[in-house]
Design goal:
The structure is a single chain. By secondary structure, the chain is α/β, with parallel strands linked by helices. It is built from 6 helices and 6 strands, in the order E-H-E-E-E-H-E-H-E-H-H-H. Strands 1, 2, 3, 4, 5 and 6 form a 6-stranded mixed beta sheet that branches. A hairpin with a 2-residue loop joins strand 3 and strand 4. The radius of gyration is 15 Å and the shape is globular. The two termini are 24 Å apart. Bound molecules: flavin mononucleotide. The site of flavin mononucleotide has 19 residues, from helix 1, strand 3 and strand 5.
Length: 150
């Protein structure tokens, strides 16, 4: 696996929980956004997680993206009611990278949050693992550029 990191902002723990699972399965580093490595732009793959705030990414994630150009980049977000897709669309627009990988929105409804403890992601696990599989396939796929050079 290339050098990879999952970087997330989380206020109440849900995005962190998903981010840690993604990092574990991807065999990638996991970092809170405040302590992301300074050379993060050199990583082969960066996956960035955000809570949905007012139908978009959190201010911390917007600020983190400013002025950075990544190699392969993907986003995920967690939300409770609506705005997951619009958050991913905003992130795709803000992203500067060589290779943008389709992102993942994970909804934890207020009822789910009330019923399930954060230690139990089992009800979302399958979708998250599918997402990680998708990222792994995308990373292995030769880029358009490389195809063109053949
Ligand atoms: C300021 C603020 C704005 C939010 N806006 C939305 C929203 O627009 N749509 C939504 O579904 N959830 C919204 N939420 C809920 C969070 O997106 C949701 O609880 C998320 O899973 C929290 O992630 P975290 O635990 O990693 O902080 C908002 C929460 C906060 C604190």
């Amino acid at each position: 696996m290339p050098k990879a990191a999952v970087v997330f902002h989380s206020q109440t723990g849900w995005t962190r929980k998903v981010g840690r699972l993604i990092a574990r399965v991807l065999d990638a580093e996991a970092h809170e956004i405040e302590s992301a490595p300074p050379d993060i732009e050199t990583y082969d793959l960066v996956v960035i997680g955000t809570p949905v705030h007012r139908c978009g990414p959190s201010r911390k994630v917007r600020n983190f993206l400013k002025g950075k150009t990544f190699q392969s980049l993907s986003f995920f977000c967690t939300y409770s009611l609506f705005g997951g897709i619009s958050c991913l669309l905003t992130l795709n627009r803000l992203a500067q990278c060589r290779h943008l990988i389709h992102g993942l929105d994970v909804r934890f409804s207020p009822v789910e949050k009330w019923k399930k403890s954060q230690d139990d992601l089992s009800h979302k696990r399958e979708r998250i693992l599918e997402y990680v599989n998708f990222i792994e396939r995308e990373i292995r796929r030769p880029s358009q550029e490389e195809n063109g050079n053949r």
